[in-house]
């Protein structure tokens, strides 16, 4: 778990630094920075989606995952959690700090991708934390940038990183046979398509309920056994 713990601490540290920077950002600059981050997120989504080997798996995963997400309405659950935390962190002047948007955006970016999966597997199977240490450095920088624009929600994303990567690490011996290179590529592809939707939201083009698509990320683990 050392790699996951270091990654979690790196996200928290980066987010705290970003929050301190946020206080000095004019609203116009913050909005422009958000649009820039949206473009960068779009690039990450497009580049990651190209690693998929079977577009049919991606399509079926999105369909099944969306049915599950809509059935549970994950987006509503996250918003309710965000509203609860916003009430707890309401500032003295009565304004609310951003929670849900920062949490969803940064959680997806920190956890969708091969480094999170492969690094956690390697950490659990062999005790080699090199990939997660490298990922921690990248996430530290990303957390600074996102927290400076999206606010305190990025701090809470550290909890998602800990649970997600920690679960893979602890279950590595049991799930590693199912997470072949092909499965990881397809999971990364599906997750990256969702990130494109996230980028469109950040750019103000759409208002997609991104969290309702998240279950689709795990569907390739099943589909790749048959396709």
Keywords:
mainly alpha, single chain, 0% strand, 227 residues
Describe this structure in words.
It is a single chain. With 227 residues, the protein is mainly alpha-helical. The protein has one domain (2-20, 29-223). 75% of the residues lie in helices and 0% in strands. The protein is built from 11 helices and no strands. The protein has helices at 2-22, 27-49, 55-72, 74-88, 100-111, 114-126, 130-150, 153-170, 172-175, 181-202, 220-223. Helix 1 (2-22) runs antiparallel to helix 8 (153-170). The two termini are 33 Å apart. The model has no long low-confidence stretch (mean pLDDT 86).
Shape: globular
Q: Report the structural category.
A: mainly alpha
Number of helices: 11
- What is the arithmetic mean of pLDDT? 86
pLDDT < 50 stretches: none
Strand share of the residues? under 5%
Alpha-carbon distance between the termini? Answer: 33 Å
How many individual β-strands? 0
- Estimate percent helicity: over 70%
Largest sheet: none
Question: SSE order, as H and E?
Answer: HHHHHHHHHHH
Radius of gyration: 17 Å
Number of domains: 1
Secondary structure: elements and pairs:
Layout: H1 2-22, H2 27-49, H3 55-72, H4 74-88, H5 100-111, H6 114-126, H7 130-150, H8 153-170, H9 172-175, H10 181-202, H11 220-223
Helix pairs in contact: 1-7, 1-8, 2-7, 2-10, 3-10, 4-5, 5-7, 5-8, 6-7, 6-8
Quick take:
By secondary structure, the protein is mostly helical.
């Amino acid at each position: 778990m050392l790699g996951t713990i270091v990654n979690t601490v790196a996200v928290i540290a980066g987010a705290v630094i970003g929050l301190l920077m946020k206080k000095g950002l004019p609203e116009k600059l913050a909005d422009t920075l958000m649009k820039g981050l949206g473009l960068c997120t779009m690039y990450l989504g497009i580049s990651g989606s190209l690693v998929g080997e079977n577009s049919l798996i991606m399509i079926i995963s999105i369909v099944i995952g969306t049915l599950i997400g809509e059935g549970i309405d994950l987006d509503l659950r996250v918003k309710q959690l965000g509203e609860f935390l916003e009430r707890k962190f309401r500032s003295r002047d009565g304004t609310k700090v951003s929670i849900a948007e920062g949490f969803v955006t940064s959680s997806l970016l920190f956890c969708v991708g091969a480094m999170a999966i492969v690094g956690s597997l390697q950490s659990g199977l062999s005790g080699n934390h090199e990939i997660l240490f490298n990922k921690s450095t990248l996430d530290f920088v990303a957390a600074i940038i996102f927290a400076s624009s999206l606010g305190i929600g990025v701090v809470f994303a550290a909890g998602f990183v800990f649970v997600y990567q920690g679960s893979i690490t602890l279950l590595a011996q049991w799930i590693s046979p199912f997470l072949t290179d092909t499965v990881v590529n397809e999971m990364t592809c599906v997750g990256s398509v969702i990130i494109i939707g996230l980028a469109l939201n950040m750019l103000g083009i759409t208002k997609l309920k991104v969290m309702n698509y998240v279950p689709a990320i795990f569907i390739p683990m099943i589909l790749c056994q048959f396709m």
